[in-house]
Design brief:
There is one protein chain. This protein is about 50% helix and about 15% strand. With about 850 residues, it is an alpha/beta fold. The strands form six sheets. Strands 7-10-11-4-1-12-13-17-18 form a nine-stranded mixed sheet, sandwiched between helices. Strands 21-20-19-22-23-24 form a six-stranded parallel sheet, sandwiched between helices. A three-stranded antiparallel sheet has the order 14-16-15. Helix 10 crosses helix 12 and helix 14 crosses helix 15. The protein starts with 9 loop residues before the first helix and ends in a 9-residue tail after the last helix. Bound molecules: N-[(cyclopropylamino)(oxo)acetyl]-beta-D-glucopyranosylamine. The site of N-[(cyclopropylamino)(oxo)acetyl]-beta-D-glucopyranosylamine (8GP) has 18 residues, from helix 7.
Length: about 850
């Protein structure tokens, strides 16, 4: 029964309905009220953290009022909604974003000043919401921003991890992991203790016949865990739409906190059950581009998929439509294969619970789902062992077998006698133990599969998913090149540049139509404009230099060329290539005469990024960077000519300081390995040039900005297989300059060389899988070009401005509209209308 207020009483209700603050005075009123009543503080003990909370709560009120309106309106209009299922949402801070999106930052700044606070100090009190690892999680966050901004009726569904990605501390050069308890003082979530779903695990399946003799299945007597909804409001930029991100938290099912045990004095085991249940949403798995097949991870996946689907189905059922209309009302996007069980779960609900026939149910499922692939790295493709799945989700395994049976039958008909094809495309890998290939379920159960950049989408069609292209034809496969939200990554991160652009373009419309940036090109030759442009870069570099000083104690000269590589540490991303290049540079400078040194462009090589805790090689790369830094930065003979910096605990809020401050940034993955990359876009949008390989979105960035504005190097994707093959059959020749670098490391220049053995031997002796040696020469030569071109500052500025002007394509809004048109088939709904 809906709890609705009867019509005659609604007048009183409406009279007192909450309203947003609209002036500085009202902001101050709301701020003080929250400090005094919500936080139980006063003007005698309001510190900066309280000022942050008070501000956040005042803005949260606004968002919730708009959230309520949005939800009512969307429900009332009853049109198709999008559900974005992602195990990761790398949101970063929310307050600054909320202030800019609702357009009240100046009001808050003035109000806070009246009350004795600086807005910057309040903003930086906020803890990052770091419920993600890297690109995939940040993409999900950019999606939420764009979907709200473009007024799409859209929900995100994820897990409310108690611990997000670990905090990285560097101790004696090594990465240490510290838990990230981020929920203290988090005002952005609304617990919905009334919105709960009981989720089943384990148990067994019974077959029975219903009254009409139809064979049915029921999944019984497992363990149940309760999912509790926590809602996070997602404001769009300058729109009335405030969408919802629903995160599920696990707790012991209502019946499960065993009162009998408790009563009988068995407190320990009563509490243990509780803790087991809470473990499910306790922690984010800290791997990027790697899967490890742990049972708890599978539990997380099912828990989240089942809760989300229950919620989605419940919402659909309120509309009293026929099931066949489900795909007209619901689009579900799978962010990688992590939510693939949602496909199986929907099929289960439709056939076991709602009593639909298999074929009808399956048509609905396919019509509903879309799947985005984010990687071709084999070690990242998810597989679950059949025995594990049998034990945890017995009914789902049966359904997976049935999906596979019908699928293989249809393949067999089209490709008779091709047993190899059948075993290649089967959902079940015939290994020991047998494995369930999640990507295969995702492809078979979706109407669209997309990659995230052109090269990547081509690669999935010609390599890992080649057979499926033959089976389904090319139409099921498509490309949607990634993008970034210009609100956070330009306006919020680089307010000065955003303001300068707005001044030239006559307003901030470019923030919602990024293609308008192209008008900037008319100012490329304007001397004053160039000065202002370069002053802003200089200030941003100063801001980063201060952060570096705070974090590392090193002073860097802000007039140096800032060379940045920040992203997860991974062999395929090749931070090792970068640091070997730095060592090469160090050796070259050391060998120079004083005269020669005068011509050297001073450089700061800046690194940042986390290694997965169990990824030994990535951890050695961090250790090498820090070891090189320790030697180079103390070498007075070198001085400012070279500095090496490792910024610890790289995260979204640090990225907001780092991206606007680069002269050059590095996107140097082995060709064919980086699906897209998105920080490449962030750096260019902030006026930095990039050095990169022909990989991922670098290729499209080049197409957009022009090849004269980017430093490309290295082997092409089409040659990689051949090179790898040759390495293994006697054709490996270590690059002579890299050899010199290795000799220096082995001589102990950067400390005990044994720490770097495996790093070096992976190249020298074990086939150099990532082609570090093959690309070294071209990498070094390209950096020399960078130095040369940096000396011509006017040319450099022209490149910087031209590049920014041509970045319109990489707006997340373009991306979101492409998904909406070609995958979801949803229309925006403007709440203001
Ligand atoms: C990342 C890709 O590595 C990156 O190139 C891309 O820009 C980003 O996704 C967004 O599309 N992929 C992953 O983070 C990834 O595949 N992680 C999951 C396998 C765990």
């Amino acid at each position: 029964v809906e709890a609705s207020i009867p019509e005659p009483l609604r007048e009183a209700w409406r009279k007192h309905s909450a309203t947003e603050f609209t002036s500085k005075d009202e902001f101050e009123r709301d701020f003080v009220r929250h400090i005094e009543t919500t936080l139980a503080r006063s003007l005698y003990n309001c510190d900066e953290l309280a000022a942050y909370s008070g501000t956040a709560l005042a803005f949260r009120d606004r968002l919730i009022i708009e959230w309520n309106r949005t939800q009512q309106r969307q429900t009332f209009t009853d049109q198709k909604r999008v559900y974005y299922l992602s195990l990761e949402f790398l949101m970063g801070r929310a307050l600054d974003n909320a202030m800019l999106n609702v357009g009240m930052k100046d009001v808050a700044r003035d109000g806070l000043a009246d009350l004795g606070f600086r807005i910057e100090d309040a903003i930086t009190q906020e803890h990052d919401a770091a419920l993600g690892n890297g690109g995939l999680g940040r993409l999900a966050a950019c999606f939420l921003d764009s979907m709200a901004t473009l007024n799409y009726p859209a929900w995100g569904y994820g897990l409310r991890y108690r611990y997000g990605i670990f905090k990285q501390e560097i101790v004696n050069g090594y990465q240490m992991e510290v838990p990230d308890y981020w929920l203290d003082n988090n005002p952005w979530e609304f617990p919905r203790h009334d919105i709960t779903v009981d989720i089943q695990f384990y148990g067994h399946v019974t077959k029975y016949q219903d009254e009409n003799g139809k064979v049915c299945h029921s999944w019984e007597s497992g363990e149940t865990v309760q999912a509790v909804a926590y809602d996070v409001p997602i404001p769009g930029y300058r729109t009335k739409t405030t969408n919802n991100l629903r995160l599920w938290s696990s707790k012991a099912s209502s019946g499960e906190f065993d009162f009998q045990k408790f009563n009988a004095g068995d407190y320990e085991s009563a509490v243990a059950d509780q803790q087991t249940a809470e473990t499910i949403s306790a922690v984010l798995y800290p791997n990027d581009n790697l899967e490890r097949g742990k049972e708890l991870r599978l539990k997380q996946q099912y828990f989240w998929c089942a809760a989300s689907l229950y919620d989605i189905v419940r919402r659909f059922k309120k509309t009293n439509r026929a099931w066949s209309e489900f795909p007209d009302q619901v689009a579900i996007q799978l962010n990688d294969t992590h939510p693939t069980l949602a496909i199986v779960e929907l099929q289960r609900i439709l056939i076991d619970v709602e009593g639909l026939e298999w074929d009808e149910a399956w048509r609905i499922v396919i019509g509903t789902f879309g799947y985005t692939n984010h990687t071709v790295l084999p070690e990242a493709l998810e597989k679950w062992s059949v025995p594990l799945m049998q034990n945890l989700l017995p009914r789902h395994l049966q359904i997976i077998y049935d999906i596979n049976l019908f699928f293989l039958q249809s393949v067999e008909k089209r490709f008779p006698n091709d047993r190899d094809m059948l075993s290649r495309v089967s959902i079940i890998e015939e290994s020991h133990p047998k494995m369930v290939r999640m990507a295969h379920i995702a492809i078979i159960g979706s109407h669209k599969v997309n990659g995230v950049a052109e090269l990547h989408s081509d690669l999935i069609k010609t390599t890992i998913f080649k057979d499926f292209v033959q089976i389904y034809g090319p139409d099921r496969f498509t490309n949607v090149t990634n993008g970034i939200t210009p609100r956070r990554w330009l306006h919020q991160a680089n307010p000065a540049l955003s303001a300068l652009i707005a001044e030239k373009l006559g307003g901030y419309e470019f923030l919602t139509d990024l293609t308008l940036l192209d008008k900037l090109e008319t100012f490329v030759d304007d001397k004053n404009f160039r000065r202002e442009w370069s002053d802003i870069k200089a200030k941003n570099k100063l801001r980063l230099a201060r952060l570096i000083k705070d974090l590392t104690g090193y002073s860097v000269n802000p007039n140096s060329l800032f060379d940045v590589q920040v992203k997860r540490i991974h062999e395929y991303k090749r931070q090792q290539l970068n640091i070997f290049g730095v060592i090469h540079r160090y050796l070259s400078i050391k060998a120079m005469t004083p005269e020669q040194r005068k011509k050297v462009v001073p450089r700061v090589s800046i690194f940042g990024g986390k290694a997965a805790p169990g990824y030994w090689m990535a951890k050695s790369i961090i250790y090498l960077i820090n070891s090189v830094a320790a030697v180079v930065n103390k070498d007075d003979d070198i001085g400012d000519l070279l500095k090496v910096i490792f910024i610890e605990d790289y995260n979204v809020s640090k990225a907001e300081i780092i991206c606007p401050a680069s002269d050059i940034s590095e996107h140097i993955s082995t060709a064919g390995t980086e699906a897209s990359g998105t920080s490449n876009m962030k750096f260019v949008l902030n006026g930095g040039l990039i050095i990169g390989t022909c990989d991922g979105a670098n290729i499209e960035i080049t197409r957009e900005i022009g090849e004269q504005n980017i430093f490309l190097f290295g082997n092409l994707a089409e040659d990689v297989e051949d090179l790898r093959h040759r390495h293994f059959y006697g054709g490996f020749q270590l690059d002579p300059q890299l050899k010199r670098v290795f000799e220096t490391i082995k001589a102990g220049t950067f400390g005990d060389p044994s720490s770097f053995n495996s790093l070096i031997s992976s190249i020298e002796e074990h086939g150099d899988y990532y082609l570090v040696s093959d690309d070294f020469n071209s990498y070094i030569a390209t950096h020399e070009m960078v130095d040369k071109e940096f000396q011509n500052q006017e040319e450099w500025l022209a490149k910087s401005i031209t590049s920014v002007a041509r970045m319109g394509f990489f707006s997340m809004d373009r991306v979101t509209n492409e998904y909406a048109d070609s995958i979801w088939n949803v229309e925006p709904l403007d709440i203001a209308d």
